[in-house]
Design a protein that fits this description.
The complex is a heterodimer of chains A (about 190) and B (about 325). Chain A has about 190 residues and is mainly beta. Chain A has one helix spanning about 95-100, and strands at about 5, 15, 20-30, 40-45, 50-55, 60-65, 65-75, 80-85, 90-95, 110-120, 120-125, 130-140, 150-155, 160-165, 175, 180-185. Classes of the chains: A mainly beta (about 190), B alpha+beta (about 325).
C-alpha cells in the first residue's frame, strides 16, 4: 500500500496504526506562526471501534490500509457465518456474527449492503441507510389515532425492534433508518 | 460539482464587516501619521526559517511569507513608521485557521518599545473586537503556571514527559523548541485570552527569529518578542527589531544549517536586506497581525473560510 503524509490526511482515509486498520475522522493542522507544524488527528480503529486522538509532526506519514467498501448481496446465515456475494463476479465472502454485529438486525436475504474488506476479508458490514421491512409482531393498532403521537414497540422480520406510531399494524411494511434505528414511514403495499 | 460551488464561502455580511474593519484600521494609521506602503509579493529571495515553506515561482523566485525584508529596506531608507496590508503565501498551511494565501497587517514603529507597540496592537484589536481588557504574561510564567516547568532551563526530558501527559504523541525524538512549541500550541494556547487580549512576552532566545535579545528582570537572556492570543487563537507576533547585521548573518547561517539537517532546500539570502541592515535600521518595534483571524473573531466565526471570499477549498 502507498503511504500518506499528514498533508494528505483527510476524513475517510484508511491507514495502519499500531498494526490495526483505522479510519481518519478529523485532521486539524496546528502551527504556530513561528515554529514546528503539527497535525492533531482523530482516528477510529476499524477492528475495535476505539477512537484515538494522536499528535503528529507535519510531514510524518502513515502506511495506507488495504481497506475497501464493496456493495454486496446478503445471501444467508448458516447459523455460524453470514454469507455475502459480490454481484459483479459472484465471489462469495463469509463473515462471523461478531464482524456483522448489529447490522444483522437489519439484513434481509437478497438485499444489498456494504461490506468493508480488510486484506480481502470482511471487517465490518453496514446495512443500507433505509430499509423497508415487515412488522411481524406489535400490539393491535388504534384506529383513527393519528394525532396523539404515541408509540409502541414493533418487531421486524429481520429481528430489529423499532418504535412505531399506534396506528401501524402487524403485517404492514415500514421504512426505517438503520443509522438511528428509527421508524420513518409506512410503505403502501 | 455542486451547482453553487462557484459562490464565495464567506457571507456577504461578513465580507462587508471585513471591509469596515480594514477601513477603520487605515483610518487609525492615517491619524497616527503612519505611511501605508506596498512591497513586492514576488522576490528572488525569501525567508530562511526552517518552519516556513515559501511557494517557489520558477524563473522569478518566491512568493513572500511576510513583507518583512522589503519593509525593513524602506525603514533603512528613511521612510519613518510604515504599515502594509499584505497578501502573503505559505506552502502547506491548510486548515480551519490556515490558508496558503492570507492577509497580514504588518507595521513598524520608529522609537517604539515593544511595550508601546503592544498598546497599539491592543488598540487595533479593539477596533475589530470592541473594548477588550489586556493582560501580559511572561512566556516563562505561563509554563510555570500551566505545567510547573521552567521553559528556559528545565531538562528536555521534563518537557517531553509533560507533553506525553497531555497528548498521545506519534513521534519520539524532537529538539527542545519542538517540545516547547508543542506544549505552547496544544496545552497553553487554547487557554489563553478567553475573555481578554493575552500578550505573551519574553520568549526563549532560541525562538527569537528577528527579535533582539535582552536580559529580563531575573537576569535570564530572553528574546524581546511578543505574541497576542485571543480566545485561544494566535493573532500577532512582534519584535523589538534586531539591528545588528552580524547577528542577523549568524541567525541566517544557523537557519541554513538547520534546513540542511532537516533535508530542506537551501534558500538564497536576501542580500539587499542584509545591505540595508549594514547601512543601518533605525531603532524600531514591528508586528505582523493575521487580519483574517482578527475578522474571524470579530464576527464570531470559528474558521477562516467564513471570512475569506475564496479560500483554497473554493478554488
Amino acid at each position: 500500500m502507498a503511504s500518506y503524509s499528514t498533508n494528505e490526511f483527510k476524513s475517510g482515509l484508511k491507514v495502519m496504526l499500531d498494526g490495526d486498520p483505522c479510519i481518519i475522522l478529523e485532521n486539524e493542522f496546528v502551527k504556530p506562526g513561528k515554529g514546528q507544524a503539527f497535525n492533531r488527528v482523530k482516528l477510529r480503529n476499524l477492528k475495535t471501534n476505539r477512537v484515538w486522538e494522536k499528535t503528529y509532526k507535519s510531514g510524518d506519514s502513515l502506511e495506507g490500509a488495504d481497506v475497501f467498501d464493496r456493495d454486496m448481496q446478503y445471501l444467508y446465515n448458516d447459523g455460524e457465518f453470514f454469507h455475502f456475494m459480490e454481484p459483479e463476479n459472484f465471489e462469495q465472502h463469509q463473515a462471523s456474527s461478531s464482524t456483522v454485529g448489529d447490522a444483522a438486525l437489519w439484513l434481509r436475504e437478497q438485499d444489498t449492503c456494504t461490506v468493508t474488506l480488510y486484506n480481502g476479508a470482511p471487517l465490518a458490514v453496514t446495512p443500507p441507510n433505509f430499509v423497508e421491512l415487515e412488522i411481524i409482531e406489535t400490539e393491535p393498532g388504534v384506529r383513527g389515532d393519528t394525532a396523539t403521537g404515541g408509540t409502541k414497540p414493533a418487531r421486524l422480520s429481520t429481528g430489529a425492534t423499532v418504535k412505531v406510531p399506534l396506528f401501524v399494524n402487524q403485517g404492514e411494511i415500514v421504512k426505517c433508518d438503520t443509522r438511528s434505528g428509527e421508524y420513518v414511514s409506512r410503505v403502501k403495499a | 460539482m455542486p451547482a453553487l460551488a462557484w459562490q464565495p464561502s464567506a457571507s456577504l455580511a461578513n465580507l462587508r464587516h471585513r471591509a469596515q474593519i480594514l477601513a477603520q484600521i487605515r483610518a487609525h494609521f492615517a491619524s497616527q501619521g503612519v505611511l501605508e506602503v506596498e512591497t513586492p509579493q514576488l522576490c528572488p529571495a525569501t525567508v530562511t526559517d526552517p518552519h516556513l515553506s515559501s511557494i517557489g515561482v520558477p524563473g522569478y523566485g518566491y512568493l513572500q511569507t511576510s513583507p518583512e525584508y522589503t519593509m525593513k529596506r524602506l525603514l533603512a531608507a528613511g521612510s519613518g513608521s510604515i504599515y502594509q496590508i499584505a497578501r502573503v503565501f505559505r506552502a502547506g498551511e491548510v486548515g480551519r485557521r490556515h490558508n496558503p494565501e492570507f492577509t497580514l497587517l504588518e507595521w513598524y514603529r520608529l522609537g517604539f518599545t515593544p511595550d508601546q507597540l503592544i498598546d497599539e496592537v491592543a488598540a487595533i484589536a479593539c477596533i475589530a473586537l470592541g473594548e477588550t481588557a489586556t493582560v501580559r504574561h511572561r512566556y516563562r510564567d505561563l509554563f510555570r503556571a500551566h505545567l510547573d516547568l521552567d521553559p528556559l532551563c528545565c531538562p528536555i526530558d521534563a518537557l517531553s514527559a509533560a507533553a506525553r501527559r497531555h497528548l498521545d504523541l506519534a513521534f519520539a525524538d524532537a529538539d527542545r523548541d519542538t517540545w516547547l512549541e508543542l506544549l505552547m500550541s496544544h496545552v497553553i494556547e487554547p487557554k489563553l485570552g478567553i475573555d481578554e487580549l493575552s500578550f505573551v512576552v519574553d520568549y526563549p532566545p532560541s525562538q527569537a527569529a528577528l527579535a533582539r535579545l535582552r536580559m529580563d528582570a531575573d537576569g535570564q537572556k530572553v528574546a524581546s518578542r511578543f505574541e497576542l492570543y485571543h480566545r485561544g487563537v494566535e493573532l500577532a507576533n512582534g519584535y523589538h527589531e534586531l539591528l545588528d547585521v552580524d547577528e542577523q548573518r549568524a541567525r541566517f547561517a544557523a537557519d541554513l544549517r538547520e534546513r540542511e539537517r532537516l533535508g530542506l532546500p537551501a534558500i538564497p539570502l536576501d542580500r539587499h536586506f542584509l545591505a540595508a541592515l549594514e547601512f543601518g535600521l533605525p531603532d524600531c518595534s514591528g508586528v505582523a497581525l493575521g487580519l483574517d483571524r482578527l475578522v474571524m473573531l470579530a464576527v464570531g466565526a470559528t474558521s477562516l473560510p467564513e471570512v475569506m471570499a475564496f479560500p483554497a477549498s473554493h478554488l
